Amino acid sequence: MDAMSELDTAGQTPPVAPVAATRGRAARLFARAPAATKRAGGRSHHVEEHAQHRTAWLRAAVLGANDGLLSTASLLVGVASAAAGRSVLLATGVAALVAGAGSMAIGEFSSVSSQRDAERADLRTEAEELRSIPRAELAELTGIYQRRGLAPELAREVAEALTEHDALAAHARDELGIDPEDLSRPLEAALISAASFSMGAFIPILVVLVVAAGARVPAVVGAALVGLGSLGALGAHLGGAPPARPALRVLLGGAAAMSIAWLVGQTFDVSVG
Questions:
Q1: Helical spans, DSSP H, in 133-273
Q2: Which of the residues 135, 173, 233, 270 has the least number of beta carbons within 10 Å of its own beta carbon?
Q3: Is 186 within 8 Å of 109 (Cβ atoms)?
Q4: In Å, what is the CA distance from 192 to each residue of 95, 101, 160, 218?
Q5: Alpha-carbon gap, residue 14 to 17, rounded angstroms
Q6: If DSSP codes are grouped into helix, strand and coil, which group holds residue 149?
Q7: Does the structure show a pLDDT above 50 at 207?
């Protein structure tokens, strides 16, 4: 609204009737966009928007569960191959769960906090530019809509209407790619990462707890591979991608990691109760 006050002073604000007409034209334009996108590509823009919004927590959850499952399983396979007993394996698994969950939470919190700080800094800069150079910002917004395919006159009208409604939100969304009402949430990301890591790590620990000594390594490997494949397929499905390739990719990576851990364990000729 500060930017629009300066525009009013400069005599740049359009009359009421054209703005009302612009709102109608813009509403019709953006109302048609999802349907057109759906006819062309099979998915509406509205659906893609929701997929994008859940990317942050989905990434944190899938990464945490994969990391917890694979790191703990690999560690247990390596220790078990060195002839460690159940009590040592349980202590190792629980320690890995606690340390890993804490590390994931702290790392995710720091990373997402930095992202949120950058978003806030960009919004402060944009708000200052809207106060100091409103005409240039309006021209910039108009250029964005022209590059998206609107005719110059219509692009100008849409930019003026959105600027009158909420200039900062329009620039944040269309120039910066930021939703001011939905900034990054570091605490949420940290909790999701820690919880998902713990759930993933609990699977191989449970296998060690219930399976007899002779079958522990194959059981841990099998449970880990099933879990990794399922997580890979689930992450791909929720992200809108075909599940086969991501599942195969994480299966091969997990098998390689556990094989290396088993070989490392075999190099130590020890027997720990």
A1: 134-147, 152-171, 186-210, 216-238, 244-266
A2: 270
A3: yes
A4: 19, 10, 41, 30
A5: 8
A6: coil
A7: yes
* pLDDT value of position 239: 72
DSSP structural state of residue 214: G
Q: Can you tell me which residue has the tokens 């005719």? A: 151
pLDDT tens for each residue of 62-121: 778 888 998 899 888 888 877 778 888 899 899 999 999 999 899 889 988 998 999 999
Alpha-carbon Rg for the chain in angstroms: 27
Both tokens assigned to 95 = 């320690």
Q: How far apart (Å, rounded) are the C-alpha atoms in residues 195 and 198?
A: 5
Res 24 pLDDT > 60: no
Q: CA 136, CA 158: separation in Å to the nearest integer? A: 16
Question: How high is the pLDDT of residue 269?
Answer: 56
**Among 60, 127, 79, 58, CA closest to 261:** 79
Rounded to a whole number of angstroms, the distance between the first and last alpha carbons of the chain is: 71
User: Residue 16 and residue 13: Cα distance in Å, rounded?
Assistant: 9
Q: Which residue has the tokens 């006050």?
A: 5
The first and second tokens of residue 77, run together, are 């396979």
Q: List C-alpha distances in Å: 84 to 9, 96, 114, 209, 225.
A: 79, 16, 42, 13, 22
pTM: 0.67
**Strand residue runs (E) in 53-129:** none
For 148, the 3-state DSSP assignment is coil
pLDDT tens across 85-96, in order? Answer: 888 889 989 999
Task: List phi, psi (to 5°) of 272.
Answer: -115, 130
What sign does the dihedral 209-212-216-220 (CA atoms) show? Answer: negative
